[in-house]
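call fold(seq) -> tokens
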Amino acid sequence: MARTASPRVSSANILAELRRAARKGDRAALTLAVEQMKILALSPRYWEKYLALLANPLARLVDLLVIKQGDRIGQQKGRKVPATPRAPRRGGRRPARAPRRRRPPVPSQPSLFPDPDPSRGTA
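ret:
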């Protein structure tokens, strides 16, 4: 049974369609989500909603690959992508590893293909 899409664009619906597309490989769900995201991205009325949607990694990926508007909208709205805080390094270098033990050499094994019997001669 075919589903009818809601005429309203909501972030929850977009994320649900993106999850369905990611989980089941549903192209129709991906197409629907991309179209709804384009509606948000291409009309200034919905830009705040679109920027909030881009907090989700799936939506951000779709924006980076298909729509390519998120950075432009964020710049026009005066938003900057927050840099991820990095923890300061403590102690400098890593502790030295214990040296690896080497295996003792294996005594020579007999050949799997021994020389043919010298008394029979080669043919």
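Residues 11-76 form one domain.
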